[in-house]
Each structure stands twice: as structure tokens, then as C-alpha cells.
């Protein structure tokens, strides 16, 4: 390793083993900090609103409880851990040591894989609700949903541990940087496990949901007024299917660029394009609660009660938000 001027090094006392300071300009660093900090704060705040809305109010729709709650938890952790860590990695030297770097990598992969898994679970939930509504109450119970979510998190915990290395590559390693180092095999596995397979399952499920929802929409127009309760129920399910479609479309737009660059090579992810696609993944975690706010009136009512601090009043759990 070459010897550099001490002023350019993260650790001047370690001339031969220290990394260089990032060459990011002052304006680029300020812009990146502002962008990621804003997304981070919005992501945590909006997902906390979803978490409180679902966990506090008793009259939250059952179909909007376990999977979306778990998705909001993983998204809020992404905003709390991943984005501040990226600010440190991209704008300054990494002074937190190897252990914190490994821990940061672990939580990043854990929360992103859990977010993907929760999106798949939501797709399965909506598929059963739309395609097999008569058996939905017996097949998709709160207990089964919680078991599936627990398995999703356990699999994510195990999966993320595969990417954490105790000993970095001594040939390319230097003190002052936290780099996501994966070999070709793990990189290929990651593309399939967290992108190709989940996206294939999600698209197949939603195509079936779309076909069934379209046929149900046509059937609704032929139903008489005496079946208004059934019509209202079916319209609610169709609206949930439409919301799922938007959620999936946003998920694909935010994750596709990252994995396309990942397939092209790990070095590309370290360029300015890599920073942009990482910001897109962060932005996906911020958009999910906004989709809820736009398409679910009960969530907007719950947010109004939370923001106006009416949630602190006795008996607020029983408030009718439906």
C-alpha cells in the first residue's frame, strides 16, 4: 500500500494502513447529508405513525394489522440505522471500528431482507383475501400471521449473518472505511433471495389478484341494492387490491435499480450511481406509510388523533376510526 500525505488520511498515525479521506466536495457532502437526513426523519416519523395507529386503536381492520405492522417496524429501522450510517460512510471517515461496521452491515441486510419478506407476506394475504374470500377468516388468522412474521424475521436474522465477515480482506482493507464486502457466490445468492424470487412471487400473486378483482368489479355492477352490505365489503377488498398494486409498483421502482447495478458489479455500487440507488431503497421505506395515508381513511383519522394528542385521553383506544 502506498504512503500518502498524512493530511489526506483518516488516521495519519497509520501511514501504511489508513484509508484516504473521502474526496466528496463540501457542497456534495452537505447535499447528501440533507437528503438522507430528511428521508431518515420522514421515514421514522411516518412509520411510527403506522405502528401507533395499528397497535393502539382496537378497531383497526384485522387485514391491516400484523403484516403492515411488521413492514413498518423494518422500514422504521431502515430510517433509524441505515440512512445515518450511509451519511457517515459517504461523507467522512469511519471512526467507529470494525465491530460497529459489521453490526451496521448486519442490521442493514437484516432490515432490508425483512422488509422484502413482509412485502411478500402482504401480497399473500391480499391474494387469499381476494381469490378465496370465503376461507380467508379461517386460513389467515392473527395467530398464523404472527407466526409467519416471526419466521420471516428469524430467516432474515440467519440470512444477514452470512454476509458479516470477522476478518476483512487484508489485501484491500484499510482503516477508516466501512465497505460491504461480498464474494461472487453470496452476491448471486442475494440477488435471487432478496430480489428475483420475491419479485416473481409478488408479480404472480398480484396478476391473479388483478384478474379476480376485475371479475368481481364487473359482478358488483350487477348486484342489487338489497345486497349493499356485500357490495361494500367487496369494494373494500378491491380497494385493498389496488393499494397492493401501488405498493408493489413502488417496491419494484425502488429496488430494481439497486439490483441491476448489483448484477453489473460491486464496484459500480461504490460510485455516485450507487449512492442514488441506495437512496431509492431508503425512499421506498418512506413511501410505504404515505401509500397508507392516501388510500385508507381509517389511517388518516388515526393520524389526526395522534397528531392532535387526543391519543393521550382516557379511552382513546376505543375511538371509532373506521
TrEMBL record:
User: Where does the UniProt annotation locate this protein?
Assistant: Cell membrane
**A single GO molecular function term of this UniProt record:** trace-amine receptor activity
Q: Provide the transmembrane region boundaries.
A: 29-54, 103-124, 145-164, 184-207, 244-265, 271-295
Membrane-topology annotation of the record: Multi-pass membrane protein
Q: Key word Cell membrane present in the record?
A: yes
Which key words are in the record?
Answer: Cell membrane, G-protein coupled receptor, Membrane, Receptor, Transducer, Transmembrane, Transmembrane helix
- The main location class comes to membrane
Q: Which GO CC annotations does the UniProt entry carry?
A: plasma membrane
Residue ranges constituting the G-protein coupled receptors family 1 profile domain according to the UniProt record: 46-292
Kindly name one Pfam family recorded for this protein: 7tm_1
* Protein name in the entry: G-protein coupled receptors family 1 profile domain-containing protein
Its ancestry begins with: Eukaryota, Metazoa, Chordata, Craniata, Vertebrata
